[in-house]
Design a protein that fits this description.
- The chain is α+β, with helices and mostly antiparallel strands.
- Helix content is 41%, strand content 20%.
- The protein is built from 4 helices and 8 strands, in the order ααββαββαββββ.
- The protein has an 8-stranded antiparallel beta sheet with strand order 1-2-3-4-8-7-6-5.
- A hairpin with a 2-residue loop joins β7 and β8.
- The N and C termini lie far apart (136 Å).
Amino acid sequence: MRHQIYILLISLLIINCNNESKEDTESENLFRDNIDLESVSLNKNLLQEKTLDSINDDSNTAKKTEQNVKIISKTQYLKDFLSEPINLIDFKKRYGPSNSGQLKANKYYYKPKDEGFYYKYMLFNGLGFGKNPMRYLNGKIMSEGDLFNSFQIYVYHFGHTGSFDFYDKNEVLIGFRSAGMHEALGKANLTGKTLQEIEALFGNDYIDAGNIIIYQYNNRVLSLKLKSSKVEWIKYYHQSSKVEKEKIPEHLIIFN
C-alpha cells in the first residue's frame, strides 16, 4: 500500500514539473515575440527616418543643383553679353550714317597690336526723330543735342585716318555709352530696368560703388548708374586691365 502511495506522489510531481516547464516555455516564447515586435517596430521607425532623411537630402540637392544651374546660366549670359553687347557692323548698317570724329586715347582702353586709331560715332540718323525716337528714363524724347551726347559708340579703326569710311568693317568695338532707351540696342537696351531685373539677367557678382554697379569679365566692363533703383545710364568698355574696386576709373562712373 505504501508503495502505491509513493508511486502516486512521484507521478503528481512529474506532471506538475511538466506544466511548469510548459508555462516557462510559453512565457519565453511570448517574451521573444514581444522583443521581435519591438525590433520590427524600431527598424520600421529607423527606415522611415532614413527615408525622410533621404527625401530631404534629395530635395536639398535638387535645390542646390537648380541654384547652381541658374548661377551658371547668368554667368554665361554675362560673358556672352560682354563679348558682344551690340553687333557693331549690323548696327551701323541699320541705323547709320552718323556724325563721327576721332576719340582721344585713354590708357584704360584696349589697344590692338595692329596700327590704327580710336574713333567715335554719334547722332545716328536711325535713332532721331522718326516714329520711334530714343527716350530718357523719364520718357522724354531726346533732342538732337541730347542724342549727340547721350549715345555714342567708340571703336578702334585699323589703318590710317585718310582711309576712313563709315561703312568700313575694318574696326573693333571699344565701347559705348547710352542714357537712352531704344529697341535698336537689343540686349543692351538696359536703361529703365530695375536692379532686380539686372540681377536676374547678370547675377549679383558685381562691384558695388554706391549708385554705380560694375560687371566685368575678361577685361570687358559694364557700368550701370542707378537712380531710384532703376538704370539711368550704362557704359561699356573693352579695357586694357581689370577694374579694381579701390581704384575705379573716372570714365566708368561719370557720364561724359
